[in-house]
Amino acid sequence: MSQPLASMTGYARATGAAGTVAFSCEMKSVNGRGLDMRMRLAPGLDPIEGEIRRRIGAAVTRGSLTVTINVDREGATGEVVVNQQALKAVLTAMDDLSRRLDARRPSLDGILGLKGVLDQKEKSLPPEEEEALQAAILDCVEQCLVGLVDARRREGVQLSAVLGRHIDEIERLTRKAEAHPSRDRAVVLERLRSQVAELVANGAGVSEERMAQEALLLATRADIREELDRLVAHIANARQLLSAGGPVGRKLDFLSQEFNREANTLCSKSNAVDLTSIGLDLKAAIDQLREQVQNIE
Fold first, then answer.
1. CA distance 236 to 230
2. Is 3 inside a domain boundary?
3. 253 and 171, same structural domain?
4. Which of 75, 140, 194, 251 would bridge with 20, disulfide CB 3.0–4.6 Å?
5. Are 35 and 43 within 8 A, CB to CB?
6. Which residue, among 94, 115, 135, 155, has the nearest Cα to 297 in the 3D structure?
7. Do 199 and 86 lie in a common domain?
8. Which residues share a beta bridge with 15?
9. CA distance readout (Å), 213 to 231, 268, 271
């Protein structure tokens, strides 16, 4: 059964809550040579980072992903503690200044209001609640991942249609090159006869045997049968990959390089301006194909 074609570009967001703790997960993906994951996790989530990476790796094969998980514990009861080291430093400074200056000592609320004297710490959850929170966050990650995969596949459907049109254009130009009259050996021979006639008119002598040899050589050099056959095979292969779907981006990229190689050879062998023009149009269509292939997973 064929799989949907997927783009490497997508975005998804999911939210959730466990008790009084709320959290959110965002995933963004763009083109990448392989699978690259960047994690931006809220404090305390290190124990589940490996599981998050494993789940993403099971669902996505290529792309540069950024995963951001925020946790809001404001609903959970926290505690305010005095930073004893900072307080001691403040009191020492006050004692030192009071011996040198005649000034009123600051009030308690003024001292506690100094930066660093009071620390607000999140109250740690009991082990069973922390475990439940991590499980809920993983469920949120899974929901976000499903959304990301769906977004990438929706764009993949659009890309598949675009790629199909480019392949149709490559096939049209290939058929046009195959039907071009300059490929006929009789045409090549006639051209050579015309060139020989000019030489004879200028006093140079060329035997019929030599002319036949030169005609054969010229026709062989201008023969693009192999290039056309390979282009036809590549077209069939490309359509088969699009039909199969799944992570075929690397194969399509390699195939687009093969397309380009055959088009270059066709242009170099061309013995007519019109055929060269077809070859250049073919190269342009292949470049458009390859540009879109870079987005495929």
1. 10
2. no
3. yes
4. 75
5. no
6. 155
7. no
8. 24
9. 29, 21, 17
Distance CA 191, CA 4 (A): 52
pTM score, two decimals? Answer: 0.72
Contacts of the segment 51-60: beta carbons below 8 A, 24+ positions apart: 51/138, 52/138, 52/141, 55/138, 55/141, 55/142, 55/145, 56/145, 59/145, 59/149, 60/29, 60/35, 60/145, 60/148, 60/149, 60/152, 60/297
Q: Are residues 56 and 146 in the same domain?
A: yes
Question: Within a 13 Å sphere around the CA of 79, how many CA atoms are in the beta-carbon half?
Answer: 6
Q: Which residue has the tokens 């609320």?
A: 109
Same-domain pairing of 18 and 136? yes
Looking at the fold, whether 239 and 261 belong to one and the same domain comes out as yes
Q: 255 lies in which domain range? A: 156-293
The CATH number of residue 264's host domain is 1.20.140
Each residue's pLDDT, cut to its tens digit, for the chain (297 residues) gives 567 899 999 999 999 999 889 999 999 999 999 999 999 999 889 999 999 999 999 999 999 999 999 998 765 455 566 778 877 887 787 777 777 777 677 777 777 677 776 665 556 677 888 899 999 999 999 999 999 999 999 999 999 999 999 999 999 999 999 888 776 666 666 666 676 566 566 655 666 676 666 656 666 666 788 999 999 999 999 999 999 988 999 999 999 999 999 999 999 888 788 989 999 999 999 999 999 999 999
Q: Is residue 5 part of a domain?
A: no
Helical H segments across the chain, by residue range: 49-59, 84-100, 108-112, 127-178, 185-201, 208-222, 225-244, 249-269, 273-293
Domain count for the chain, please give it: 3
